[in-house]
Amino acid sequence: MNDRRRGYHEDEFPTDELRVPHGQARRRQPVGEERRAEPGRVGPSRANRRREAGAAGRKRRGRALAVVLGALVLVVVIAGGAYGGMKLFGGEDAPADYAGPGGNAVVIEVRDGDTADQIATEMVDKDVTASGAAFYNAAVQNSAMNSVQPGFYRMKSQMAAADAVTTLVDPESRVGQIVIAEGRQLHDSADVNTGAVKKGIYTLISEASCAVGQGVPCVSYDELNAAGAGSDSSALGVPEWATDAVARVPDRDRQLEGLIAAGTFNFDPSASAADILKQLVSESSAIYENTGLVNAGAQSGLDPYQTLVASSLIEREALPNDFAKVARVILNRLAIGQRLEFDSTVNYALDTTEVATTDGDRAAVTPWNTYAMTGLPATPICSPSVGAVQAAENPEPGNWLYFVTINAAGDTLFTDNYEQHLANIQQVEPGFLASGR
Predict the structure, then answer these.
(1) Which residues on adjacent β-strands are paired with residue 130?
(2) What is the DSSP string of 281-327?
(3) Which phi and psi (to 5°) does residue 404 adopt?
(4) C-alpha closest to that of 235 among 278, 271, 284, 279
(5) Amino acid 72: pLDDT
(6) Closest alpha carbon to 392 in 284, 307, 272
(7) Handedness of CA 298, 302, 308, 311 (dihedral sign)
(8) What pLDDT is attached to residue 17?
(9) d(CA 136, CA 268)
(10) Contacts of 215 (CB under 8 A, 6+ apart)
(11) Which of 134, 149, 244, 355: CA 20 to 30 A from 250?
(12) Partners of 189 in the β-ladder
């Protein structure tokens, strides 16, 4: 008996400030001194001086005209460049823009590494803004765009571009994000003693989808449960290493148990139930595979799906510092054909749960009750953490066969001797393993 209780950053697009060069001020020519009349012809005649003065004036006016014409050419070049840039974004004058204030909700996705013009394309494709140019122009003027993270955002159809940018950078616009805690199950469960409901993954997904509103329908708990029980496992993102085992699950409603990992996920809340589950299962498979799950049998002798099942037991039976020891207990018992006898597997098939279980609970034969059967349960019993998966892949060396958690702090005693195990049970804190049924 084993008793226990996508970051996104916005590229900057600096623009060089172009200025028309200032014309240089004319230098005042020094006025010549008054000449005295002298005998004989010493300088040019008065008529010649008038002709020379006229020529000098024309020369100065020519230089001034050249400066003005040069500046005019520069202005034309700048205007042409701005016009060309505006044409690039789809407008000859000001880019097309909606007046607002917008209609029904629209969900847009910001992908990891998206630039302002890529987000602008998404806005146009979803009819949030009238043109990419209008959104782009507003986006590059808002420094808060640098803080936008990958994920899904609630916008409105046909918004003014400036309003679309303001909405996008508002953290309240973020939708479709869920946090799945370690040990979470697909379905809701209630505590025997308090009646408190622990929300299942399907409930968390449904609540996140309902947060959009404004014309975007919710994905209901029942829709998710029905989709998760579908017979086409590939349409649900089930990896090849789990396909055969999932096909044999005796309760179709539980066939995706454990295949959605613990962690934080972003999903499109306007998508169908099947598409949402496919995304979450596919991303979770990648998380598990990155731990080395596919090749874990070299150390443990378990196939990938069995490793996932064992990981879920570890998650529910121990705290992280004891994960590797509990993993070893599982392998040691499986090796000699001894029943695992984990209370967590008894609780899994019950609508209400507690740390302890009753004699009647433990006697009930289910595909998960390891008191009533040898071997591993039919499915994982929760979503394990990466740490639990790694422990199942690399169990701590030892000959332990028994363990008991003795208090709410999680202190756990391990032994390979049954008599010592019975003595360890006597150290359990009074009332800790008492059933509330």
Answers:
(1) none
(2) HHHHHHHHHTTTGGGTHHHHS--HHHHHHHHHHHHHH--GGGHHHHH
(3) -145, 135
(4) 278
(5) 32
(6) 307
(7) negative
(8) 31
(9) 24
(10) 103, 104, 105
(11) 355
(12) 198
- Which residue carries 């409105």 as its tokens? 156
Which parts of the chain have pLDDT scores under 50? 3-50, 60-91
In this structure, what token pair is assigned to residue 397? 């060396």
Helix axes 273-289, 221-228, angle to 10 degrees: 60
Note the pLDDT tens digit of each residue in 32-46: 333 333 333 334 444
Q: What is the pLDDT of residue 297?
A: 85
Residue 249 backbone class (left: φ over 0; alpha: ψ -120 to 50; beta: rest): beta
- What number of other Cβ atoms are within 10 A of residue 50's Cβ? 11
Show the tokens assigned to 332: 């040691």
Owner of token pair 């121990």: 318
Domains annotated for the chain, with CATH where assigned, are: 105-173 (3.30.1490.480), 189-425 (no CATH)
Residue pLDDT, tens place only, 205-240: 999 998 887 777 899 999 999 999 999 999 999 999
Residue 367 to residue 379: CA distance in whole angstroms: 8
pLDDT score recorded for residue 54? 53
